[in-house]
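Protocol step 4 of 6: record predicted structures for both targets in the notebook before any analysis. Target 1:
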Amino acid sequence: MDSFKQMSDWRKNMDHFFGDHFWNEFENIIKPAIPQINIYQHEHELICVAGIPGLTDLNKVEIYVDHATLELKGVIDLGYAGGTVAKEEILQGVFERTVTLPYPVRRDKISATYQNGLAVIHLHRLISDETGRHKVNVRLTDGT
């Protein structure tokens, strides 16, 4: 029997026993999220550092920012093929990662650079010109 089929059957049995969402808690232990991301928070700025080794074509990575969400899509390809893998700790392949940011960021002030295997994304806090308080006008009615 195919070992992947056995693993799939085993997981289905565990899902049936523990519930459909049992594995969600272990997802990052079983399969770590790629790319790995560090976020450094300042009062009005975020610096997001994503480890994307082996990137030679910047068109193979896409970075999206929407309000308080950072999304990265792309491919990690180290360029080594053939042979049998004796140990693999640097994850490769297609990735799609969405991260919630600690606060909303401006759309007009975003920059990203790539050097030495790291994508560095600079984001700036969205500060609203409006106060949170909104005056409500009261109308006088004649009571009928």
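Target 2:
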Amino acid sequence: MQELSTGHIGLNVTDLDRSRDFYQRVFGFDVLAESDGERRWAFLGRDGRLVVTLWQQSAGEFSSGTPGLHHLSFQVGSIEEVREAEALLRELEVTFAYDGVVPHGEGAGSGGIFFTDPDGIRLEIYSPTGAEDAKAPTAGAPTCGFF
């Protein structure tokens, strides 16, 4: 393998309409394809590129205590974009792991916001720079690792 990159991320959700609307609003995704039958799914992306697939085939809430996905992270171009996303997420009354933008570690320039989607799936929006002045919530460990 000379070149390797992540293709898309597939997420099981409890309510396709609710999750599709959330991911479209927060991340600006377009619906690239969607089912209209008994088995419900949606393909979401940007500029024609598939990024997230949603599959309505779950009950309950995301479990952070079992093996599997830890969190899903999205990189943006600037800390200002992170703050814009934070403002929108506050309007949507999502649950945040930390209060506002935090660095990935003490003294790190990269950082962002950590929150959950409607099914409790842990998400991150971050910028590679701009979080230098924020205080890390966890000493001695990466911020994104233990939330």
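Step 5 preliminary note on target 2. The mean pLDDT is 95. The first strand starts at residue 9 and ends at 13.
Proceed to step 6 after PI sign-off.
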